[in-house]
Description:
By secondary structure, the protein is mainly alpha-helical. The chain has one domain (115-426). The protein is 64% helix and 1% strand. It has 17 helices and two strands. It has helices spanning 3-23, 36-47, 57-60, 63-78, 80-90, 97-107, 115-162, 181-196, 198-213, 223-247, 259-271, 288-300, 313-327, 342-369, 375-386, 401-416, 418-426; strands spanning 334-335, 338-339. Strands 1-2 form a two-stranded antiparallel sheet. A hairpin with a 2-residue loop joins strand 1 (334-335) and strand 2. Helix 4 packs across helix 7, helix 7 packs antiparallel against helix 8 (181-196) and helix 13 (313-327) crosses helix 14. The protein is globular.
Amino acid sequence: MTVSRTICLGFLAVITIGAILLMMPFSTSSGSWNDPIVALFTSTSAVCVTGLSVVDPGTYFSFWGQLFIALLAQIGGLGYMTTTTFLILLIGRKFDLRQKIAIQQALDRPGMSGSTQVIRSIIATTLIFEITGVFLLLIAFVPEYGWSQGLWLAIFHSINAWNNAGFSLFKDNLIGYQSSAIVVFTITGLIIFGGIGYQVILETYIWLRDRFLKKKATLVFSLDFKVATSTTLILLVLGTIAFLFIEMRNPETLGNKSFGDQLMLAWFQSVTPRTAGFNTIDNGKMTTAGLFITIALMFIGASPGGTGGGIKTTTVRVLTSCTKSILQGKEEVLLYDRKIAVSLILKAVGVLVGSIATVIISTILIALTDPELDFIQILFEVMSAFATVGLSTGITSSVTPAAKIILIITMYIGRVGVLLLMSSILGDPKPTRIHYPEENLLVG
């Protein structure tokens, strides 16, 4: 039982438990037993923080079913190992070397030291942001729905926004609040900070604390911080401009709105493909260009250590830096005056190739099971599942059971990660002393 197998099987265990709970009569609003496929799909989507749903969660599930979805999204966002370790700490036990290694791999940390402090800081950060989101969303929901329902709506959407899950209790998701600045900026703020990674948030906190206390020693930001923040900012700005330019003439999305609303909708649409899944416009009515931009943003996803999916911003930066080095005739890959290790470059290439292969295979299989669907709809749905986004053109509930099973597997692969899943199947690599001769090969 390797560490990678422990993590993969842990996610499967949580998905199974969630599916059993969602099958129970008390989880549905009708009081009858739930369809196993619906329960499994919803549980997988919640644990994998995707947000794709074959039913309307707000009307199909009872309060208990909605609560289970929120809890599963919370566990999925934190990660199986983080949640397990936190429970171990709660009962006062110490964890062994294997658990420290598992935490290191699950959070993609460089070392094992300070694992306890990291888990505690992750939990504290999560609670602070989610509680803040609840209070802000109360301003929008309480006047319309009253205190009891408004509070639950605020809690549910805050949890799903921070964990980049994307489940909503409204039939039209957040389209009804597309002009509400408090909802739009609260949800997008939670999505961005939830997906940017705990390490970035921690370094920001330390920097602000040192500035407030006027300490002479200044914090040197890590390479992870620089890459994650700069890449995220670039993608958000370019995405907003692209959606505004492409969709502002489309009367089905931004065309009939004021410029202020258009800007706010374009901003939201730029943020939510970063694996969140909320939507303030009907994705099925977007232009083909808009859908392809959304697919590209979904594929990139969030940053390592966060609650989002995709191939991650750091992977994209490493690969683009490789391309830049090749074009400049350099033999080293540099990022912010730091040399990138060959092992990291190989890992980035592996993530890219594995991710593309997964998306292609899933798209082909669904095209075979549901040949009546358009290619762009299938690709959009598969990319949303793999990158654990949750956006849809509206075909999720109408696809065949076979296609739903394919999407379930795709969501799972996207959440645990292609490389981690392959490591759990093939086992840990064995060291070797054999070195083979080098030879040139025509490439490109």
